[in-house]
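Service request form, structural biology core

Requester: graduate student, group of Dr. S.
Request type: structure prediction, single chain
Budget code: on file
Notes: please return the result as structure tokens.

Sequence provided:
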Amino acid sequence: MAKVKPFRGIRPPRELVTEVASRPYDVLNSEEARQECEGNPKSLYHIIKPEIDFAPGTDEHDPKVYDRAVENFKTFQKNGWLVQDDREHYYIYAQTMNGRTQYGIVIAANVEDYLSGVIKKHELTRRDKEEDRMKHVRIQNANIEPVFFAFPDNAALQEIIDRVTAEQPEYNFVAPDGFGHTFWVINDQQLINRVTTEFAKIPYLYIADGHHRTAAAALVGAEKARNNPNHRGDEEYNYFLAVAFPASHLKIIDYNRVVRDLNGLTPEQFLARLNDAFVVEDKGTEIYHPARLHNFSLYLEGRWYSLTAREGKYNDNDPIGVLDVTISSDHILRDILGITDLRSDKRIDFVGGIRGLEELKRRVDSGEMAVALALYPVSMDQLINIADTGNIMPPKTTWFEPKLRSGLVIHSLD
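Core staff response, request fulfilled:
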């Protein structure tokens, strides 16, 4: 059962939140961060991407960059740009995109829950990326950015969300990307206690987005426990920052593929090869979106095609075999285009569905890519089924949007 707790959040004053809050560290490069916060010393980028305080081209892993992150975090607190709450709270965080709002509960999640599998994952993590994030958690002694969890719908927690969000929010703003962010502080101690109690009835939490940050936060907590001869188990370092959303609130969007060449085939030969595993239909020059599971959209030489997987080319009884990313990886990328490692092959790139299928068309029409493939999005039920059965999704399967805004609240490990 999930063990969570409230915490004393470190947050910007209401009037500064739009200056402090930023996009997550991993959705933009150093130069983009430098441009976004130009002239704004209060931007969280100075803490989560501190290389922007140095000359362009400075290695983000240089020790002086990590040192600057610590210095900047202290400066933000000294200047009152980040202030710690007097007592422990849970918080509600709502995100609005295209008229649709999802409501999450900001919690301190338990390190042991991650290590024991109560917090379930569906992706593999890379040790080098974990170690980079671990350095940031260690040097700051804080979880600066939250991870993104889902949990099975719970009527009592939904009731608390509804009650709290009927009140005046602490923050309410629209970010430059057009997404709305609203944030409430839960002050009622009875409600705080109920949140803890209700999560204790939930058997599993699921990592939706942020597998590396989750692993890093949990591993640093475990390190601190090992290094503390008086470790009790209730210290703040036993917990890390997360926003947990009811599963029904979340919608996974498509994660699409573009490939640089046809592996020596002519377009005609490529289309002919596709007929082995798919029913291929020419849809003309208008953008075609995949209509359902096992239906794909392909763009080649100015034309869109519908690909429908043939019976026997997939396994609906296998949590991995049922995925369209598996079908396309096996029967198109591997068998026809010769791409076997999605993580390392330089011939393939991935495009989040937030950019639309117009981006796929643009990259092929420009001559940069030879062919584009759009997939029907994975469902939350599929994600949970994969995690529950102990399986791991293939690379680049899920894309969640909007991303959590960083800087609305920080969790100290002290």
